[in-house]
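Hi Y.,

Following your request, here is the sequence exactly as I used it, all 343 residues.
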Amino acid sequence: MFFASDNTSAAAPSVMSAVLAANEGYARGYGADPIMARVTAELRAMFEAPDAVVHLVATGTAANALALATFIQPWQAVFCHRHAHIAEDECGAPEFFTNGAKLALVDGAHGKMTPEALTQALGSTGESGVHGVQRGILSLTNVTEAGTVYTPAEIAALTALAKERGLPCHLDGARFANALVATGATPAQMTWQAGIDAVSFGGTKNGCLGVEAVVIFDPAKDWELQLRRKRGGHLFSKNRFLAAQMEGYLQDGAWLHLAEHANAMATRLATGLAAIPDATQRHPVQANMMFPEWPEGTHERLEAAGAVYYRFPAPAGREGARLVTSWSTTEADVDAFLAAFAT
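Below is the corresponding structure, written out as tokens. Let me know if you'd prefer a different format.
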């Protein structure tokens, strides 16, 4: 009954097998290994972008911060949701790697910014000449920090507003696979076809040991991204072990199968919670993360039964939680958690 996060699960078998295979013999360092060449080709084909820039890092924070820094200047703003991961969970890394760019926080229910809120934010930034922060880049998150999902059409509506101002657009895809299987979209439809210029393609939360891909659809950005990655301390000498993880992750569509299972377990859990008296959901459950609320005293009963999850603030008389399912969550885990409400 471990629902603290999907990044607490073990690595998927295909990933571990690929890493063990990569451990045989020697390979050139810093991304010159043959596995990296195959991964690059695979991701380009998957995104239907033959000239895309593909580089690997070990963390989602690095992927986001390096991608953003490659596109903007220190005096510009990153437009993101008020509760985006880059705003609340990255310890100022985007500001650090961009050398001081400001995060312009945009509102919207259930973790999703609205076109109206983005229009207002864009209109109130960069209007005071040299005295004010200038418009820089739009950053969206899919799956959002509320566990909700943007459709490609919703992404396109927001990027269109940014493009009207000449701004590039970034997608934080730490749970990209979960968003894809939730919407039925293709990687291309979710990204460059919807106006996205760069994506942080996540692996760690969905069965990898620790690897994320920075994918940029403008090949002219390649050299700058490489320099920023090296200068920021995120160029692995033994890159083959990052590449091997990604290759095992992509093998035979494993990344989508893993996400499908995680989402299915979340649906099972949410359906069960809907039948629990006085249990409600703060946000729609659309992928593999949810934020239920229940009466006071429930935490102690669930945790005594062995449940592990994050407690979240809730109104007086209520308790809140964040529950995240993963590729390795079982039906037995879900059913035992639901049974604990009756103990």
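The first helix runs from residue 13 to 22.

Thanks again,
Q.
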